[in-house]
Amino acid sequence: MSTRFSLAAALLAWALAFPALAQDNPLGAAPACGPVQDHPDGRSPQAVVQALYEIVSGAAGAKKDWERMYKLFAPGALVTATTHGTAGFLAAPQTPRQFADLNERLLGHRGFYEREIAHEVQDWGHLAHVYSSYETRDRPDGPVRVRGVNSFQLLHDGTRWCVLSLTWDAETAAHPIPVRLDRTGR
Q1: 137-164: string of b/e by CB count within 10 Å (b at 16+)?
Q2: What residues contact residue 145 under an 8 Å CB cut-off, 6+ apart?
Q3: 101 burial type by CB count under 10 A (0-12 exposed, 13-18 middle, 19+ buried)
Q4: What is the CA radius of gyration of the chain?
Q5: Cβ-count burial of 132 within 10 angstroms (0-12 exposed, 13-18 middle, 19+ buried)?
Q6: Per DSSP, what are the bridge partners of residue 91?
Q7: Maximum distance among all Cα pairs of the chain, rounded to whole angstroms
């Protein structure tokens, strides 16, 4: 008997023994990445990351394609905004919609351009982790304002890749971007 069959048989037995609990279990109810299955941005982990950089970047007052961004996230996904403040390193987990609202409030009135410096992808089965170093500017050709590393946890539901979680940390003197993720030569 294969492990896969044993697991399936055990899950079926569990669902038959506890039908009320099985109805509340979201596993198997929908593809892991949600109902949008033909999204071209989900063809690879790198394509998902590149699409997110495109979406958050733009001129002051430019309308960003948040609907495109929402389709890149799994149901229940989190975006954890972070900052280095006087109280220490602060983190605020939020939904992609809350992140879009925060982005509009903080960056909608000025230009914001984020681009990837380098990335490192580790994948196995339906999982991928991407470290993507970045730099931000107010104009595409302006001076670099902030550098750091985005950390993406992605899922593949058999059809496409999507983001389960995203967080980042800005570079500081105490923790510079590691050499393997810094292709700028700094």
Answers
A1: bbeeeeeeeebbbbebbbbbbeebbbbb
A2: 135, 136, 137, 138
A3: middle
A4: 19
A5: buried
A6: 82
A7: 63
pLDDT (tens digit, 9 = 90+) per residue, 62-93?
Answer: 999 999 999 999 999 999 999 998 889 999 99
Find the Cα–Cα–Cα–Cα dihedral 178, 180, 181, 182, rounded to 10°: 80
For residue 1, give both structure tokens. 């008997």
What domains lie within the chain, and their CATH numbers? 1-28 (no CATH), 31-181 (3.10.450.50)
What per-residue confidence (pLDDT) applies to 1? 45
3-class secondary-structure state, position 155: strand
88 residue type, one letter: G
Label the pairing between strands 73-85 and 88-94.
antiparallel
Low-confidence ranges of the chain (pLDDT < 70): 1-29, 185-186
| Six-digit token string for 42 | 């989900």
Q: What is the pLDDT of residue 2?
A: 47
